[in-house]
Amino acid sequence: MSIIIFILVLGLLIFIHELGHFLVAKKAGIRVDEFAIGFPPRLFSYKKGETQYSLNLIPFGGYVKIFGENPEDGSTEKSATNSMINKPKSTQALVLVAGVMFNVLLAFVIFFILFIKGAEFDSSIVPFLTEDSGVRVEYVVPNSLAEQAGIEVGDTVATVIVGNQKVVSDDEGILEALYATDKQTTTIGLTNTSEESYQVILKPSSPDMKFGLSLTDRAFIKVNPIKGAYYAFLTTGNVFKMTAVGLVQFFGQLFTGQANFKEVAGPVGIVGLVGQAVESGFNAVLFLTAIISINLAVLNLLPFPALDGGRLVVIGIEAIIRRDLDYKKIAIINVVGFCFLIALMILLTFHDIKNLFIN
Asked: Model-level pTM?
């Protein structure tokens, strides 16, 4: 199931990315020869106007074949007004950055839906959460001590007293006390969803007996559409910034041989994350989709050959020197860059599998 959902999520993100390139190219009067989801062999296709729409067998990818993007016979002729290479540099750059823009827009829409639908968020993700969100009851095990005491999902834990020792009512202290291995008679002060305070005493029959409740210190946010749009904008920007800093640091460490592969995930690792999200519910799957979408956007913006960012660098150089670079040499550089990315993907997959056995 996790693999199927991973493929669906990846397919959606690639579709949105390529749709951005496609729509902006069409709007700019550039001929689009093919819009494809997946890589060949081809399963299904049909042609409408000048564009061939294809669905291919291999789901891990997709592409838009734009006339003049990689100059071929006739595409560099000045008479070919529908060729990308004959459009202004600003138009070429807009077509390239459109995929990134659409991935960021998708993340914004997902965050917006979560904020108006209601979901849990961590303060490290949502920049406007400046105060502790408190510890809430996320799940109560049926027939457990917690259920027998009347504790319900959504109740907020205010204080915890283990034996005669009062625990400071901060998030970390509460979580540590209630997740301790050896349990003593514990008094818990809570506030229910009606803002009514109450207290329970849990008496385990053995030192290692669990109370039977799952806790979270994430904030539950549900707001109106106007505030939801504002929150989604701030959150999208914050995640984009965090992702950009993280990727730059990782690649810097990679080239110095100091990269920590436990902090990044390849295909196998992402499948594992999707599996965890599925177990946590639909909101978690939506949230992870938004995070991956932003990661895809930031990755494509990196000034590296074969990525949109690398091609933007080429367009920028051409705009400055006022002439086109040798596209045959650029093509060779892109092939080398693509091979490096494939090698990196294989390396990440190796470490994903290695981490599975180590952990």
From this structure: 0.76
pLDDT in tens, 318-332: 889 888 787 778 878
Closest CA to 100 of 355, 312, 359, 326: 312
Q: Cα–Cα distance between 276 and 269 in angstroms, integer? A: 11
Tell me the per-residue pLDDT of 109-157, one tens digit each, with 9 for 90 and over.
999 999 999 888 877 788 776 555 678 887 888 888 888 888 888 788 8
Q: Worst-scoring range by mean pLDDT, 72-76, 77-81, 273-277, 310-314?
A: 72-76
Question: Amino acid letter at 214?
Answer: S
In this structure, which long-range contacts are made by residues 66-70, counting pairs with CB atoms below 8 Å and at least 24 apart in sequence?
Answer: 66/21, 66/25, 66/30, 66/31, 66/32, 66/33, 66/95, 67/30, 67/31, 67/32, 67/33, 68/30, 68/31, 70/327, 70/331
* Catalytic residue positions, numbered: 18
- Within 8 A by CB and 6+ apart from 184, the residues are 162, 163, 204, 207
